[in-house]
């Protein structure tokens, strides 16, 4: 269990308050290096708020968020969002698609590599002489083509991103995030709105990222078939608190999880658990 033996991210006693509302309440969990970790829970459980704290969109009211990169450790709760992406290498996608709809598919993947290109062009001596830039540009195009191939969109490289089918746009967003070489990729409901064929393409892509790259994946997902198929580790939230944490098989059998999802009263639980387990 890598989340215990080799944690990439440790969330410790995270609290997020909005006025009098406690959206995340003393939450602790680990994300294992190279794992696919899912955060699940009923509507309003606090999943997106946790993501917003990890990726710097919210400053937590309390607690610690520690990422252990190679030789470096980052305290995300103290870092601005842009540094979390650029320095700690934690990137994300959103519930609603945020591609540059008017740019081509390829351009969307090149913009994601803006930082290395900028460094190579204006911010170094070789770049000023025009020596480093072409090499950096070639490397950026190679990387974009690599991810285009992974998402089966090579033939659509020059099409405007907004013209792609919904499922293709979802996978392009993930490819764009991967072009920044994240150590942790946070995906907010990547399977939402996908048909079964698109959903299968998504799970292939995510399993491929786990197998062929060092990137760990943390996802929020309502589609339980996707969660159970691809996750190494599942964390279940309800009312801002963790109610279960384990392998998919462990959480599937957990009485508190069943109760939270079905909205069952305590006294009805044994009967429901017997029914679900049968
Ligand atoms: N910016 C905000 N200001 C005030 N309350 C908020 C804010 N963001 C979230 N909340 C509240 O915090 C709680 C948790 O919301 P959150 O969106 O994190 O849940 P969720 O588990 O992601 O839900 P869903 O599955 O519906 O997306 C909810 O009660 C929500 O209304």
TrEMBL record:
State the GO CC annotations. Answer: plasma membrane
Pfam families found in the cross-reference section: ABC_tran, BCA_ABC_TP_C
Name the GO terms of the biological process aspect: D-alanine transmembrane transport; L-alanine transport; L-isoleucine import across plasma membrane; L-valine import across plasma membrane
Q: Signal sequence span per UniProt?
A: none
Q: Which UniProt keywords apply?
A: Amino-acid transport, ATP-binding, Nucleotide-binding, Transport
Asked whether the keyword Nucleotide-binding is assigned, the reply is yes
Which GO-annotated molecular functions does the record name? Answer: ATP binding; ATP hydrolysis activity; L-isoleucine transmembrane transporter activity; L-phenylalanine transmembrane transporter activity; L-valine transmembrane transporter activity
Which family, according to UniProt?
A: Belongs to the ABC transporter superfamily.
**Protein name listed in UniProt:** ABC transporter domain-containing protein
């Amino acid at each position: 269990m890598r989340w215990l033996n080799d944690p990439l991210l440790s969330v410790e006693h995270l609290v997020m308050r909005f006025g009098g509302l406690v959206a995340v309440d003393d939450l602790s969990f680990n994300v294992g290096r190279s794992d696919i970790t899912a955060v699940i829970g009923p509507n309003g459980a606090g999943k997106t708020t946790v993501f917003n704290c990890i990726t710097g969109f919210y400053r937590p009211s309390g607690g610690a968020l520690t990422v252990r990169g190679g030789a470096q450790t980052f305290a995300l709760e103290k870092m601005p969002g842009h540094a979390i992406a650029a320095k700690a290498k934690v990137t994300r996608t959103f519930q609603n698609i945020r591609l540059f709809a008017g740019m081509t598919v390829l351009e969307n993947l090149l913009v994601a590599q803006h930082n290395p290109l900028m460094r190579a062009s204006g911010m170094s001596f070789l770049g000023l002489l025009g020596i480093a830039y072409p090499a950096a540009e070639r490397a950026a195009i190679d990387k974009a083509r690599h991810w285009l191939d992974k998402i089966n969109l090579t033939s659509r490289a020059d099409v405007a991103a907004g013209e792609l089918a919904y499922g293709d746009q979802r996978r392009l967003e993930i490819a764009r995030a991967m072009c920044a070489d994240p150590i942790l990729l946070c995906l907010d409901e990547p399977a939402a709105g996908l048909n079964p064929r698109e959903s299968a393409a998504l799970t292939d892509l995510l399993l491929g990222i786990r197998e062929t790259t060092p990137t760990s994946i943390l996802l929020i997902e309502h589609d339980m078939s996707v969660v159970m198929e691809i996750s190494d580790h599942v964390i279940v939230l309800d009312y801002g608190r963790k109610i279960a944490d384990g392998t998919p098989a462990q959480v599937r059998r957990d009485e508190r999880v069943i109760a939270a999802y079905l909205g069952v009263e305590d006294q009805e639980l044994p009967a429901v658990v017997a029914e679900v387990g049968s």
